[in-house]
Q: What sequence folds into this?
């Protein structure tokens, strides 16, 4: 599968994510107007943030897919990290607002009993089913393309199952047992869950923007490929950095200094292809040193 196919799949996941989030926002707005439940409000806020994140993710995927140009010689994939960092900050702020409202309602002791809980439960169950379908497609796309934005969005929507299930529990408990306070408690739990997820997403984006190295397991895999590749007598200075869904890798390999430039080039090019075959999102630059020469470091 080439990069054009990858881009097409990533865009399909992004568009579907936007459509699902939009439908859920409309459905939950109606459910909130019918029930007045804070737990539904928490899932509505989460879906509204999902819509913003999905729009940002779709824009980032589209922009990151642009080829490198004179002004951006290493491509545009850092847009994915910038979008993820902005989204995480927004989520944390929204979680704080929901938590504050729920705590104030609990302290005031005037928790309002949700109304028409059956309608709210039906909408939230609908949200769970639709979200499950979206996650299924996103996971398939992420496995095929390795796109970090799609994978992160998938994990985020998996996390959405928790506040949605919590809203069902809160509405049922309120309707069956009259426990109206549980609505605020579930809203606080959902908000905290959102905040922790946002911190994780924001940290990953920040690490990428700060040129943190790639996943150690990936570097170990590259080292194994380089160390066993025919014609390569050793390697050093394996360095990496991340930018969105791309990982940039620099590597010095040691070759027989008596062979021709053509032979040395063929070994380096073959090794580069082998690394990219194992890690399609890698952008690999290989420097060739004669055996025994540590290079200019």
A:
């Amino acid at each position: 599968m080439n990069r054009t196919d990858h881009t097409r799949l990533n865009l399909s996941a992004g568009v579907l994510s936007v459509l699902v989030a939009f439908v859920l926002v409309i459905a939950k707005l109606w459910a909130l107007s019918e029930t007045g439940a804070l737990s539904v409000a928490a899932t509505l806020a989460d879906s509204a943030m999902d819509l913003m994140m999905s729009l940002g993710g779709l824009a980032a995927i589209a922009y990151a897919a642009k080829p490198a140009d004179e002004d951006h010689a290493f491509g545009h994939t850092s847009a994915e990290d910038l979008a993820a960092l902005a989204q995480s900050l927004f989520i944390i702020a929204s979680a704080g607002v929901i938590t504050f409202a729920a705590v104030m309602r609990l302290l005031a002791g005037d928790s309002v009993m949700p109304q028409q809980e059956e309608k709210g439960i039906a909408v939230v169950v609908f949200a769970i089913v639709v979200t499950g379908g979206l996650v299924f497609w996103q996971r398939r796309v992420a496995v095929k393309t390795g796109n970090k934005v799609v994978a992160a969005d998938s994990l985020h929507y998996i996390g959405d199952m928790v506040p949605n299930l919590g809203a069902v529990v809160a509405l049922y408990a309120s309707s069956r047992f009259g426990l109206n306070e549980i609505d605020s408690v579930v809203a606080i739990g959902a908000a905290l869950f959102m905040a922790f997820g946002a911190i994780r997403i924001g940290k990953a984006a920040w690490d990428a923007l700060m040129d943190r190295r790639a996943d150690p397991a990936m570097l170990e895999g590259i080292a194994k490929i380089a160390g066993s590749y025919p014609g390569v007598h050793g390697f050093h200075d394996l360095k990496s950095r991340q930018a969105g869904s791309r990982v940039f890798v620099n590597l010095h390999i040691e070759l027989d200094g008596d062979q021709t430039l053509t032979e040395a080039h063929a070994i380096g090019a073959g090794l580069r292809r082998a690394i990219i075959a194992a890690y399609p999102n890698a952008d690999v630059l290989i420097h060739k040193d004669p055996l025994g020469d540590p290079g200019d470091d």
